[in-house]
Amino acid sequence: MNTQIINTQIVNTEENQHIISYKMLGIVLAALLVLTGVTVAVSTVDLGVFNVPVALLIASTKATLVLLFFMHMKYESRVIIVSFISAVVFLGIMISLMFFDVAFR
Amino acid sequence: MEKKIDKTGVRIGMWLFLYTEIILFGGLFVLYAAYFHKYPELFAQGGKELNRVLGTVNTAVLLISSFTVAASITALQRGKKGQTIALLLFSICCGALFLVNKYFEWSAKFHHDIFPNSATLQDGPDGLNIFFGLYYVITGLHALHVIIGMLLLTITLVLVIKERVHQDRFQLLENSGLYWHLVDLIWIFVFPLFYLVL
């Protein structure tokens, strides 16, 4: 009984070895390079208060593409996805608490 | 009987390490955010001093090298050793190119008397001094990560050539790849924050 469970778990992790085709990776690279061009182009236009948010939005989109495809996050086990999101949330808490301090001094 | 490798476990370990790296650079970005909030004009002025063209070229170089590292994993999973070696070599060369560009960039700054503790920055406004302080700390720490990443990729490359890393056992390549992508991820944020601030 126990061995059966362990065996299916091993099979499951084997299936997780996902192969991403060159073509797919190439499309992601093209998207990343285009977004780099966009972020440079946007930086020449003064958007006032939106300068930094727009730059960060594009950077986050690029980071997401790298994470999902280059770092295989799209095909990763739940442990890694959940723990990664927790790390990012923690970083978010750190940044927002800092602004609570700085903004109300 | 061959020893079983916990493939997921190996990756989880690497990711745990990567979280500490994210928090390490995250802390520096918090510092950046706090001072950007305080000196927005001076940060913009400092950002204009930086070489946009070199910054953009370096971004492209890192993105392409990330692509080739990801492709080298695909190649090894398909059992194509030659392609894996070529892709890894190319990635390491991209890392070297990145560092060469960084060298020229930093030398130009040194030439203009912009470096930590230089007279121009010491006597100049605080915000500018802080901007370049952060610039040197963050890009310096990042460059150190590029060097470590290149080292890891080189070790992996040697082991691929020696067939110690192969189709059925490529965890080292995967983890070195993850490290390299992290270096790329950090640069994705460094680039707009330093080179493109308005």
Provide tags for this entry.
heterodimer; A: 105 residues; mainly alpha; 4 helices; flat; B: 198 residues; elongated
**Overall pLDDT of chain B, averaged?**
93
Proportion of residues in helical segments of chain B: over 70%
Write down the Rg of chain A.
Answer: 20 Å
The stretches of 5 or more residues of chain A where confidence is low (pLDDT under 50) are 6-15
- Report the uncertain regions of chain B: none
**Count of DSSP E strands of chain B?**
0
Strand proportion of chain A, as a percent range, falls in under 5%
Describe the structure.
In chain A, helix 2 (22-43) runs antiparallel to helix 3. Chain A is built from four helices and no strands. Chain A has helices spanning 2-15, 22-43, 51-70, 78-103. Mean pLDDT of chain A is 85; it is low at 6-15. Chain B is an all-alpha fold and 198 residues long. Chain B is built from seven helices and no strands. Chains A and B meet through helix 2, helix 3 and helix 4 of A and helix 1, helix 3 and helix 7 of B.
